[in-house]
Amino acid sequence: MNSEERLAAFERMLADIEKNYDDMQRKMDSLKVQGKEKSATYRQFMGNKLLYRQLLSMYELYGLKERE
């Protein structure tokens, strides 16, 4: 894998992580409206969201993404 391919892969990964983070937030918001904040599904989404936030923070730490 050359440098350009590697950079493209990192860019795709970042885009997927951002999309997944936003998806988790939307799903959690939907469950919250339904009063299901204590459900196992909500908690799983919260865990996923925290994982994606950590990955985004790592991108920021290494200067691969601007801070929000």
Q: What is shown here, in short?
A:
By secondary structure, this protein is mostly helical. The protein has helices spanning 3-33, 40-61.
- Radius of gyration, whole Å: 15 Å
Number of domains: 1
Order of helices and strands: HH
- Which word captures the global form? elongated
The strand count comes to 0
Please give the count of helices.
Answer: 2
Low-confidence stretches: none
Distance between the termini: 30 Å
In percent, how helical is the residue content?
Answer: over 70%
Q: Which whole number gives the mean pLDDT? A: 95
Overall SS class: mainly alpha
The fraction of residues assigned to DSSP E strands is under 5%
The main β sheet shows up as: none
Can you put this structure into words, describing what you see?
- With 68 residues, the chain is an all-alpha fold.
- It has one domain.
- 78% of the residues lie in helices and 0% in strands.
- α1 packs antiparallel against α2.
- It contains 2 helices and no strands.
